């Protein structure tokens, strides 16, 4: 089923694109066009305005345009349907106004565009408008219900503690930048580092070099302080994860109180979005925090698994696991992308990786502790095999 997507917004919104292709595959299948061909072009407002002017004589951008290759309403499967153009700038700002995650809003625009290519036109009559609206709603609801994470759960490796060991001697090894490369070669889907205000492990030099060398995805964990926000805006990592940060803590202790900092976090997230940096919020498995994360405009949440990992008995562990599972489902159902992490080790990871809503795990300490004994490559591969056979 050939769906071609071209993103002409110079690599921006990269995280939305893969999902959009899966959505297009699903919608075409539901419309009986699994063999048909479709091209999707993602553009900026500037390019959209030019197309709108050229083809519709309207000199302003719009959210979506369809260019059908066929005429008529009962097209056979296996035809060339045509092109859909979506302006990601307009999609983003409309999504923000409607308080829908941009990824989901793009799905709505995609459905609208596909229905036009299939011959429906809301401008023809009120009857057709209502038909098209009903069909679009049905497809959208089906898509959300049936959307499955593509492939297996991903494993991102946090290399902070390579830097912890380096800083213990104040010299230049071991190097977290080299470690990140080894993790990627062993199959990690991303590298995570926490640039703390006190620079106790990762240093500014590390994040600069990692930005240039990480080939998978660089996720910068950070507190929402002015200094670190400025660094992130300049560095442009592939995403950031906002965490609460206290100077005296040994490691991040609890999730962010998103509900208690709506104004501040909305501002930080919108600053990041202006630079196309998706934001994840590290939260406890708590419905109120999940809802607040959606309200402030986060793209991801990372559910804190610490209490589950630290549980002193099986009953508490089961209880904490249920909280994580419920929070992950709730977040996923709202359209947030869901990661999890903190404290996961070679025994506690499989159960979390098996949760359908969770897309990626962020693991550091356990892998580094094992790496000292068996080598980093092997430690990552062993964790990866746990994650992949569970998820
Ligand atoms: N996720 C977040 C938000 C964290 O702060 C940390 C610790 O830096 C981790 C994941 C990884 O935790 P651990 O090192 O215990 O695997």
The hetero compounds bound to this protein are: pyridoxine-5'-phosphate
How helical, in percent, are the residues?
40-55%
CATH H-tier superfamily of the largest domain: Aldolase class I
Mean pLDDT, all residues: 92
Q: What assembly state would you assign to the polypeptide chains in this entry?
A: single chain
Q: Given the C-alpha coordinates, what overall shape results?
A: elongated
Care to describe what's here?
The structure is a single chain. With 391 residues, the chain is of the alpha/beta class. The chain has 2 domains: 3-146, Metalloproteases ("zincins"), catalytic domain (Collagenase (Catalytic Domain)), CATH 3.40.390; 154-390, Aldolase class I (TIM Barrel, Alpha-Beta Barrel), CATH 3.20.20. Helices cover 50% and strands 17% of the residues. The chain contains 16 helices and 12 strands. The chain has helices spanning 14-30, 45-56, 88-98, 102-117, 126-146, 160-169, 176-185, 204-213, 226-235, 262-274, 287-295, 306-310, 314-333, 349-353, 365-374, 376-390; strands spanning 3-7, 37-43, 64-68, 80-87, 154-158, 190-194, 218-222, 239-242, 279-283, 300-304, 337-341, 358-363. The strands form 2 sheets. The chain has an 8-stranded parallel beta barrel, surrounded by 8 helices. It has a 4-stranded mixed sheet with strand order 1-2-4-3, sandwiched between helices. Strand 11, helix 14 (349-353) and strand 12 (358-363) form a beta-alpha-beta unit. It is elongated, with a radius of gyration of 22 Å. The two termini are 26 Å apart. The relative contact order is 0.09. The model has no long low-confidence stretch (mean pLDDT 92). Bound molecules: pyridoxine-5'-phosphate.
């Amino acid at each position: 089923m050939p769906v071609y997507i071209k993103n002409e917004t110079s690599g921006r919104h990269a995280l939305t694109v893969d999902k959009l292709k899966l959505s297009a595959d699903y919608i075409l299948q539901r419309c009986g066009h699994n063999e048909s061909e479709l091209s999707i072009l993602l553009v900026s407002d500037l390019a959209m305005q030019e197309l709108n002017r050229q083809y519709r004589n309207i000199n302003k951008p719009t959210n979506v345009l369809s260019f059908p290759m066929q005429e008529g309403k009962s097209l056979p499967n296996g035809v060339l349907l045509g092109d859909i153009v979506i302006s990601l700038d307009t999609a983003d700002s409309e999504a923000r106004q409607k308080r829908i995650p941009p990824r989901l809003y793009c799905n709505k625009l995609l459905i609208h565009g596909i229905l036009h290519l299939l011959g429906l036109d809301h401008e023809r009559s009120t009857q057709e408008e209502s038909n098209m609206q009903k069909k679009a709603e049905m497809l959208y609801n089906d898509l959300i219900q049936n959307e499955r994470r593509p492939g297996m759960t991903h494993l991102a490796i946090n290399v902070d503690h390579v830097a912890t060991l380096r800083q213990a001697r104040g010299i230049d090894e071991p190097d977290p930048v080299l470690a990140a490369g080894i993790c990627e070669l062993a199959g990690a889907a991303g590298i995570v580092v926490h640039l703390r205000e006190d620079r106790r492990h990762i240093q500014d030099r590390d994040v600069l070099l990692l930005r240039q060398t990480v080939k998978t995805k660089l996720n910068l964990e950070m507190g929402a302080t002015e200094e670190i926000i400025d660094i992130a805006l300049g560095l442009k990592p592939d995403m950031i994860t906002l965490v609460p940060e206290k100077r005296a803590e040994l490691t991040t202790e609890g999730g962010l109180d998103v509900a208690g900092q709506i104004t501040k976090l909305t501002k930080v997230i919108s600053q990041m979005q202006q630079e196309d940096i998706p934001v994840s919020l590290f939260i406890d498995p708590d419905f109120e925090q999940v809802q607040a994360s959606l309200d402030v405009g986060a793209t991801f949440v990372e559910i804190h698994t610490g209490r589950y990992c630290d549980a002193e008995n099986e009953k508490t562990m089961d209880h904490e696991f249920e909280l994580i599972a419920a929070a992950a489902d709730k977040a996923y159902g709202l359209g947030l992308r869901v990661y999890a992490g903190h404290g996961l080790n070679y025994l506690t990871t499989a159960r979390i990786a098996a949760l359908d809503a969770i897309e990626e795990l962020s693991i550091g300490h356990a892998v580094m502790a094992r790496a000292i004994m068996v080598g980093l490559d092997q430690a990552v591969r062993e964790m990866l095999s746990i994650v992949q056979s569970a998820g």
